[in-house]
Amino acid sequence: MQLKKTSLRHWTAGLCGAIALAAGAAPPPPADLVVRNGQIHTMRRPAEQVQAFAVRDGRYVAVGDNAAIDRLVGPATRVIDLAGAMAMPGIADVHMHPLDGAYEALFACDIGPGGDLPGILARVADCAGRAGPDDWVVGGAWSGALLAQLATPAALAALDRAGAGHPVVLRDDSFHNRWANSAALRLAGITAASTAPGNGVIDKDPASGAPTGLLKEFAAFATLEQAIPPRTDARLAQAAEAAGATLGGYGITAVQDAFSNEAMLRVWRQTDRDGKLPLHMVSSLAAMPTASAGDAATLALVDHRRRYAGAHLHPTFAKLFLDGVPPARTAAFLDPYLPDQEHGAHFHGKSNFTRAQLADQLAALDRRGVAVKLHATGDASLRLALDAIEDVRKRNGMPGQRHQIAHASFIAASDIGRFKRLNVTADISPMLWYPTGLGAATAAAIGPERANHMFPVRDLIKAGALVAGGSDWPAGQATPDPWRGIEGLVTRRDPLGAVPGALWPEQAVDLDTALRIYTINSATAMGLGATTGSIVPGKSADFIVLNQDLFAVPPERIHDTKVQHTYFEGRPVYTRPNN
Hints:
Elements (H helix, E strand, L loop, with lengths): L1 E4 L2 H14 L11 E4 L2 E3 L7 E2 L1 E5 L2 E6 L1 H5 L7 E4 L4 E4 L1 E6 L1 H10 L1 E2 L6 H14 L6 E6 L4 H4 L2 H11 L4 E5 L4 E4 L1 H7 L12 E4 L6 E6 L1 H10 L5 H17 L2 E9 L1 H12 L6 E7 L11 H5 L10 E9 L33 H13 L3 E5 L3 H18 L6 E5 L10 H4 L2 E5 L8 H10 L1 H4 L5 H6 L3 E4 L12 H10 L19 H15 L17 E4 L16 E6 L2 E5 L4
Parallel strand pairs: 2-7, 3-8, 9-16, 10-11, 11-12, 16-17, 17-18, 18-19, 19-20, 20-21, 21-22
Antiparallel strand pairs: 1-7, 2-5, 3-4, 5-6, 8-23, 12-13, 13-15, 14-15, 23-24, 24-25
């Protein structure tokens, strides 16, 4: 690929051709940027591939073949010759936690994915040995498959030894559970007498009644999170800038932050004002109390959301949690979990709302023009979400706000057609739609047959649902890499080969569909479909250049994709080193 400035002679020749073609009409002004001679997938329907496009003032102004676009080249136009390389719209990720992901990468105790208990303890001991006298050891992520091993007095004693007197708090791979040592529990005031509201569980030793250190769901670990020394403004600003750089490296130019408290919004607002936010960001406003003291939540935060809006920051969603996660048995299912000693043989889990409660809260947000991202991993909570949205549609009218059901992991067949009918997006989590350790932990709770029937992507698309893709970074895995998720959509296999087998292979989709899920579908789901997600005149010039033609390589090699260049609003925000 070559980057060059064209000659006046080339511009004059193109201009004369344009004038002749327009039968005497004044030629259009030259473009700021022309990208030509590529395999450019626009994501328009029907599937469209063009050779070139032109950009002016950060937006696409023309799309077509080389000859047509060359007419927009002027003496100051920057021209990129793709030399046959593939280009496409920037990736839109509908579900992630970018500030958390970047902060953990910079400042947390990284215990690595998939580690066993001895490995976790060794890593904690290493982090504690490097910590200052008053520091906490905070990090993750341990596997949900370890839940039973961690819920013992012996494991707590081992964590106390590894912490060497420091409070220790470690999150799991779902972000829904915490494991804390005795020092952290003491500072949070969690004792044998403590109980958690709602769906929260403070795990206790059956013999002594003392907490084991395992805390399931936010209601159980809220006081623990509040006891952790707050993140400093300087560190948060550093993490925000690092998040932008990380996402640009993966070709991501639009994201939906799946949970934004007021402290996070302040960081993103300042980052945007400083010109350091190289992507479109949609925020999902916290609809429950957060660990940050003094933060507004729910309608109090929603009603003054506009003070945080900026050129690239769009606080237009709210976030509600209907349930937890299957490995911890905090998700709500239509059929019961496998029997265990704690829950018996007929435990279905429970949702955090009744239908009437959820409909009332959704209706209030819907009337304010706020769409809602509803976390629902069990099929019972997902049905509850659809039932409540149906009630809201009757109250507020159709089509209403385009609400999202986040994760949409397990869906009863009779509920699939309701997504389109109720104008609801299925927000699917890519790092789970191929075999993973988290999937294995889910199978241990509900059985392998049911666990294998996750993410009916093909059925949703066939039924006309809008399906959008998100990484959930840093939950699930330590990278927001979209190419693994895209490959997983096509193959339903683990791209890295760490977990064998295929996850419900009948739900695989073709590559064009997978790319649309990650571009125009996600942009539309975020409310940005008119702004980004496809290469169309008038839209923001957010595009990426790849190192390989995805349509020319075996599907099993999609995860090897590297982004050569990322452009946001027509300006380069990432170039691969040594490119």
